[in-house]
Amino acid sequence: MIRSIKLFTRQNTPRWVVLSIDLIISGISFGFACLLTEVFIKSLDLQLFTYLRPLLIVLFVRLIAFRITRSYSGIVRYTSTQDAVRIFFAIALSTAILLTAELIFELNSIQTYINPAVIIIDSLIALAALTGFRILFKLLYNEYAPFKSQDTKELIIYGAGEAGIIVKRSVERNVKLGKKVVAFLDDNKQLHEKTLEGIKIYSPDVNLNEIFKNPFNAELVIALNELSPIRKKRIIEHCLQHKISVKTIPPVSAWINGEFNLQSIKAIKIEDLLEREPIKLRKNKISNELKDQVILITGAAGSIGSEIVRQCLSFKPKLVVLVDQGETPLYEIENELSAQNIEIIVGDVRNVSRMEKIFEHFKPSYVFHAAAYKHVPLMEDNPYEAINTNVFGTQNIANLSAKYQVKKFVFVSTDKAVNPTNIMGASKRIAEIYVQSLNAKLRLESDHHTMFITTRFGNVLGSNGSVIPLFKKQIEEGGPVTVTHPEITRYFMTIPEACQLVLEAGVMGNGGEIYIFDMGESIKIIDLAHKMINLSGFEVDKDIKITFTGLRPGEKLREELLNDNENTIGTHNPKIMIARVPEYNYLEVNNIINKLYDQKDSLKNDTLVKTMKKIVPEYISNNSIYEKLDS
Fold it and tell me: Are 505 and 455 in contact (CB under 8 A)?
């Protein structure tokens, strides 16, 4: 009794039980075959003894075939086409054995026991019965499993292709997850109103409330890897409006050993809502420039610098030299890229003698200068550090690039350098001015000189210290989510997208340009907060509150990519433009910066900031203690 209880409370039915059931079904099917033959062919004498002997022979042969093909080894509630194929081969093999034996007996005038007609009819009945038993069990199990949640989550799969079918089957095999596929959505009009494995296919424009019984307990999985960002955004926002959670599957290339795993289904991230059409790069041009070259990248352990490293490596340079003062992040990226042709150097761009040794030893052909302090409120409190790194550090690397005849120097700037309202933005603008004026000076002196190129873009999604990681952390902690102002807006770009444009601009530049990138539409931060809360499965104000903290020192309501005196020139890439900016005299700029450098350790903060305002007249402080200097 105890043994039988254990047997049926096991997670999977033992194989010997499945094999026994298969043999019972085979016996019943043989009986039906004999009955049908007697009724329609009238060639049998259905007496008990004449029935039992051939039955035992058939069961013995079937048992051998089942053992050879292992048709009973599959988990019945997860029955698939592979199980049906194994059953087919088992029946085909045993039928072939029986027919061959009967033929041999007949040719040798030996008494036969089984009519060939019975064997053939039996094989057809057995094939249908064994397959049908498994399918029926699977359907009943999925519908009435005792552990099935009463709160079953309804699931719609977007994409009725191969990936969508795989997701459906995976869900059905994992009943304990408490999910039931209720519909497919697909853009292909020819599939609408048809069914796929018993599930109806709808147009994506269908009213989801008509499909879901309870939208609050519903989920949509996007099972398309080639969905355009615009289409994906519409789907996600439509679901968010109906309080339906949205998830997506990873690309096929990311499946472990080429197999899909339900655990790999991930919730939609805010980055998916801010995605744009992929950038078309001139990869051949970039490859021709960077292949077999020595590339030096400062700030290489930061979010932007490290991505530039990864993308440069894809173009097979001779060596990539990573310079950063952050020991721990450098260690992490070294572990990530240990098999690549890289050189890791802990160094500070403000230390000119240390930097010179690096240039002297490696002799780079390309320099991507991404080292900078970038946090606006922190730099508002520490103008000395902002100037020291963002201005003098850039001056050091630029001068060394010219001295050691680097082919191109690419400076990573920011939209905060446009009409700056804070110290960080002003320090980056001064660095831009110096780099441009140095390029103009070298162009007058020689036709062969280092080309200095500046790239300017806005906020980068997921970069260190950006608003999105902050919001994620606040949501995980239960809120509140803090927004500085209800009307504040920002431009956003993904890290890979920004770095792709940096490489493209760096390759196309001829020196002296300031490249600005198409950042798309500016986004209200309050809208961003709402969407992130909803994507996390919460409701604004009910689960997570949003509070306004006021603009931080130096912060703008709206960022700009151009000031009033600038306009743009188009390039071959519609996402990259060249800003027309005023030119500065190198000697004047260099004298002011050198004088500032000589006095930096003795000057007070007010005097440092006053000098910055002299160099950048459009620098007007906002929400800052330095507003007094503007009057």
Answer: yes
Q: Of 446, 447, 525, whose CA–CA distance to 488 is shortest?
A: 525
Domain range list for the chain: 2-144, 153-268, 283-627
Cβ atoms of residues 417 and 456 within 8 Å: yes
- The CATH T-level fold of domain 153-268 is Rossmann fold (3.40.50)
Contact between 532 and 543 under an 8 Å Cβ cutoff? The reply is no
CA dihedral 426, 432, 437, 443 (to 10 degrees): 180
pTM: 0.68
Say what angle helices 303-313 and 327-336 make with each other, to 10 degrees: 30
Residue 319: beta bridge partners?
294
Mean pLDDT of the chain: 80
How do residues 105-131 score in pLDDT, each as one tens digit? 766 666 556 777 777 888 888 888 877
Residue 462 has pLDDT above 70, yes or no: no
pLDDT, tens digit (0-9, with 9 covering 90-100), for 415-441: 888 889 999 999 999 999 999 999 999
CA–CA distance, 89 with 69 (Å, rounded to integer): 7
Q: Which runs of E-coded beta strand occur in 197-269?
A: 199-202, 218-222, 245-248, 266-267
pLDDT at res. 9: 40
Q: Is 416 a catalytic residue?
A: yes
Q: Are strands 492-494 and 459-461 parallel, antiparallel or unpaired?
A: parallel
Given a cut of 80, whether residue 470 has pLDDT beyond it is yes
Catalytic residue (one of 416, 428, 531, 575): 416
How many CB atoms within 10 Å of residue 11?
A: 6
Domains 153-268 and 283-627 share a fold: yes
CA distance 593 to 606: 16
- 288/305 Cα distance (integer angstroms): 21
DSSP-derived letter for residue 600 is T
**Helix locations, 314-351, DSSP H:** 327-336
Q: Are 460 and 493 in contact (CB under 8 A)?
A: yes
Which one is predicted more confidently, 374 or 555?
A: 374
For residues 141 and 523, give the distance between their C-alpha atoms in angstroms, rounded to a whole number.
49
Distances (CA, A) of 85 to 81, 89, 90, 436: 6, 6, 9, 71
User: Is 482:550 a contact under the CB 8 Å cutoff?
Assistant: no
Average pLDDT over every residue of 282-298: 89
Could you give the CA distance from residue 344 to residue 335 in angstroms, rounded to a whole number?
11
- Position 302: which residue type? G
Count CB atoms within 10 A of the CB of residue 4.
8
d(CA 539, CA 542) in angstroms, rounded, equals 5
Strand ranges in 35-159 using DSSP code E only, listed in sequence order: 153-158
Strand residue runs (E) in 327-429: 342-346, 366-369, 408-412
CA 518 remoteness from chain centre? 22
Q: What fold does the segment set 283-627 form as a domain?
A: Rossmann fold (3.40.50)
Is the Cβ–Cβ distance between 153 and 178 less than 8 Å? Answer: yes
